[in-house]
Design a protein that fits this description.
The protein is α/β, with parallel strands linked by helices. The protein has three domains: 3-94, 3-Layer(aba) Sandwich (Udp-n-acetylmuramoylalanyl-d-glutamate--2,6- Diaminopimelate Ligase, Chain: A, domain 1), CATH 3.40.1390; 109-316, 3 Solenoid (UDP N-Acetylglucosamine Acyltransferase, domain 1), CATH 2.160.10; 317-345. The strands form five sheets. It has an eleven-stranded mixed sheet. A ten-stranded parallel sheet has the order 6-9-12-15-18-23-26-29-32-34, with no helix packed on it.
Length: 345
């Protein structure tokens, strides 16, 4: 594609180095994307992190996506307020498109009462249960299990060996990676004097449009009602979401994080790797929770939180600095005590 067209698609401003003339720019083609240290002519790259600035003056990329003008970069620069997002959008444009066959394999099991939409693909050894609905152009990979009364929306992709249990609902353009389980029983048990009584989990999981769920993630069905994943949310691999949790729209949950039962995560939240959200806790919109953080109480204000229990990140950093100085302060106090003892006071 032409560089000018790319800039328009990204709503990016073009910065021309002195070595590039306007008439050449009008015909400049971009044919690929590449890292800034390995890019060749025709490629577009991006420059965000300081450690890669050393490649700015030597890169052979035809264009570089940046947040602001880089003085020692001799290549055309695409200036964007969010260069990482701009590079992601560019990557989508050049990503190879996978062509599915639009067929139902005779080696798949598809119930006679299931409805398979136009152009949908069901690969060998997939299972589609009674009264399930698979939307137009959806893809069900080998070994996937689609339970009774499951609904899968248009153009959604269910990767290999993923399980979607009875009654769960998957929206449009959802991507669920391999070995994920949607709709297993929530962990509902009531300890008694002589046994532990199971609470039947009769709700469902509802996944809204444009969600992506990583490999090996588990999302439990609700005890009653719905476990909800909001539209546009992205969930990493090996994440656990318990029963009756509600995740807001456009949130991001990083690998190893866990959200306990009936918690509510707001819109545009970011949960760092291996963080934990306690049961019945609620977080406001635009909250970022750092990796390894434990959220034990509700968070009512947007911002960044870290530590255990979670506190505003600035306060947590000050506490860490103070703790590091504890030994120094202890030694100073001991010396003062010794000096006082030696002086007879």
């Amino acid at each position: 594609m032409l560089l000018n067209d790319l800039a328009k698609a990204l709503d990016a401003k073009i910065h021309l180095p002195k070595t590039v003339k306007q008439d050449f720019l009008d015909s400049m083609k971009i044919t690929s994307i590449a890292p800034i240290d390995k890019a060749m002519e025709g490629a577009v790259s991006f420059l965000i992190k300081p450690e890669y600035m050393k490649f700015a003056s030597t890169t052979k990329a035809s264009a570089v996506i940046v947040g602001k003008v880089v003085d020692d970069c001799p290549q055309v620069q695409l200036i964007h307020k969010n260069p990482y997002w701009a590079f992601a959008k560019t990557s989508q444009m050049f990503a190879p498109e996978r062509k599915e066959n639009g067929n139902i394999s005779p080696k798949a099991f598809v119930s006679e009462t299931a409805i398979i939409g136009k152009g949908a693909t069901v690969y060998p050894h997939a299972f589609v249960g009674d009264h399930a609905i698979v939307g137009d152009f959806a893809v069900i990979y080998p070994g996937a299990y689609i339970g009774k009364n499951v609904k899968i929306g248009t153009s959604s992709v269910i990767r290999a060996n993923t399980v979607i249990e009875d009654g769960c609902v998957v929206g449009n353009r959802v991507l669920i990676h391999a070995n994920t389980n949607i709709g297993a029983d929530g962990f509902g048990f009531a300890p008694g004097e002589n046994d532990i009584a199971k609470i039947p989990q009769v709700g469902i999981v509802r996944i809204e449009d444009d969600v992506e769920i990583g490999a090996g993630t588990t999302i439990d069905r609700a005890a009653m009602g719905e476990t909800l994943i909001g539209a546009g949310t992205k969930i990493d691999s090996s994440v656990h979401i318990a029963h009756n949790v509600r995740i807001g729209k456009n949130s991001m949950l990083c690998g190893g994080s866990a959200v306990a039962g009936s918690a509510k995560v707001g819109n545009w939240n970011i949960l760092g790797g291996s963080c934990n959200i306690n049961n019945h806790v609620e977080t406001a919109d635009r909250v970022t929770v750092g990796g390894m953080t434990g959220v034990t109480k509700s968070i009512a204000e947007p911002g960044e939180y870290m530590g255990f229990p979670a506190i505003p990140a600035g306060e947590w950093r000050r506490q860490v600095v103070f703790i590091k100085r504890m030994k120094e302060l202890y030694d100073r106090v001991k010396k003062l005590e010794e000096k006082l003892e030696n002086s007879g006071h």
